[in-house]
Amino acid sequence: MPVASEWLDTIKARAALVAEAQPSGIHGPPLKHLLGELQFLTRPLKRKEPGLAVPRSTSPRVVMLLPGFATHPVRLRRLARHLEMAGHTVKNWGLGFNMGPSPENFDVVTQRVLDLHRRYGEQVVLVGWSLGGIFAREVAKRHPDAIAKVVTMGSPFSGNPKANNVWRIYHLITGHSVEAPPVVADIATKPPVPTVALWSARDGIVSPRSSCGRPGERDRAVALRCGHMGFAYSDEAIEAVLAELENI
Asked: What is the signed CA dihedral for 203, 66, 91, 197, rounded to 10 degrees?
């Protein structure tokens, strides 16, 4: 049966990707930080969470939020709510769950950014969590005229792409290697727009060196104290994003 044969080939190919060796000297964050991420998994699902006292923005922006790998925009709803409280116009990326890059979904995100740029008559600020930040950086490289700023949150844009604790899961779900994504040529190259990297030494998923980046790969790096999951909705992450929106 051709269909069964195709499925078997797919399973074999993904199994081979998952079985790839970890490069010598390359590793993700320590186990204690990875375990620390578990406490955040259900927090954004609570119906009510205390809000922050958010001042009104002196220069409201149009902001697109891009979720992390295997997450849905709902994980960013607390961040979105506080940005809206400050007067910003917040849009999600329009693709639901982020199951990895492909030419098709990258084109959808790019077109959505361009549509927002035309509709509101101003440049869009892209705020991307983890893999969402990689999408944001790549869109900004291709259409810098439509982008005011890129803010990444725990995004692995620097160093070895296997310097994290989830690359095998990424291989299993996407069917391609983190070392050969289908739409990205050079992840570390800085977009030609203001680019700020939020990172944390307590990140349990992505190596802090990968999300901080090197000089020249981003304009500034801002250290936070949250875990990787906390980038999406912790108070300090929200405050950091609000500060970046005022600094454009």
From this structure: 50
Instruction: Please give the pLDDT value at position 1.
Output: 45
Neighbour-count burial of 46, counting CB atoms closer than 10 A to its CB (0-12 exposed, 13-18 middle, 19+ buried): exposed
List the one residue out of 70, 45, 32 whose CA is nearest residue 166: 70
| Domain map (residue ranges) of the chain | 61-246
Q: Do the beta carbons of residue 136 and residue 158 sit within 8 Å?
A: no
Q: How far apart are CA 152 and CA 171, in angstroms?
A: 22
Q: Is the CATH code 1.10.760.10 the one for domain 61-246?
A: no
Taking CA atoms, 162 is separated from 137, 167, 179, 246, in Å, by: 19, 6, 8, 34
Report pLDDT digits (tens) over 24-45.
999 999 989 998 888 766 665 5
Q: Are strands 195-200 and 124-129 parallel, antiparallel or unpaired?
A: unpaired
49 — pLDDT class (breaks 50, 70, 90)? low
Is the pLDDT higher at 8 or at 84? 84
> For residue 91, what are the β-bridge partners?
64
